Amino acid sequence: MQALIRRASKEDLGNLREFLSRAKLGADGLNDETIDHFLLLENEDGSLRGSLGMEGFGEDGLLRSLVVSPGQADKEIFVLFDQMVQLAKEKGMRSLFLATNKSVALPFFELMGFQRVVREELPEGFYQSEHIRHVLNVDNSLFLKFSL
């Protein structure tokens, strides 16, 4: 089945919140003003199969809410990231960061071009993010950076 990746709109808020909730992720900061920083991966029938969002802090973006339903092809995940890079460039970003506590995902992110960074290298503005404040409280959290 062919997948479609598109930018989320205000009409997608409820569906995206529900999708993130089913994946046990919070929807903090997801609202009318930030929804256009999210990409959706859908099947031909319009059912939501994946998401990837970004919080903007000046020239830096923080990736969040990466959720992909089981059975999605790796290629579709790569395309989702590639489209997010394009969106970040459109928004004037110079770098993208992500936080994870899943070390098993590191090879995937490194294949995408992300490099590990230490907490001290995170932009100061990130500490305004509820997402980052939560991740900082997780002992095994890792941070990665992708330069645009």
First and last CA, distance: 31 Å
Structural class: alpha+beta
Number of helices: 4
Name the beta content range.
25-35%
* Strand order in space, largest sheet: 1-2-3-4-5-7-6
Query: How would a textbook summarize the main sheet?
Result: 7 strands, mixed
What is the chain-wise order of helices and strands? EHEEEHEHEHE
- Rg, rounded, reads 15 Å
Helix percentage: 25-40%
- Stretches with pLDDT under 50, minimum 5 residues: none
Structural notes for this entry:
The protein is of the alpha+beta class. The protein is 27% helix and 30% strand. It is built from four helices and seven strands. The protein has a seven-stranded mixed beta sheet, with helices on both faces. α2 links the parallel β4 and β5 (95-100). The longest helix has 17 residues, at 74-90. The radius of gyration is 15 Å and the shape is globular. The mean pLDDT is 90.
Element layout with pairings:
Layout (H helix, E strand, L loop, with lengths): L2 E5 L5 H10 L15 E6 L4 E10 L2 E9 L5 H17 L4 E6 L5 H6 L3 E3 L12 H7 L5 E6 L1
Parallel strand pairs: 4-5
Antiparallel strand pairs: 1-2, 2-3, 3-4, 5-7, 6-7
Concise account of the structure shown:
The chain is of the alpha+beta class. Helices cover 27% and strands 30% of the residues.
Features:
seven-stranded mixed β-sheet; 148 residues; 27% helix; single chain; alpha+beta
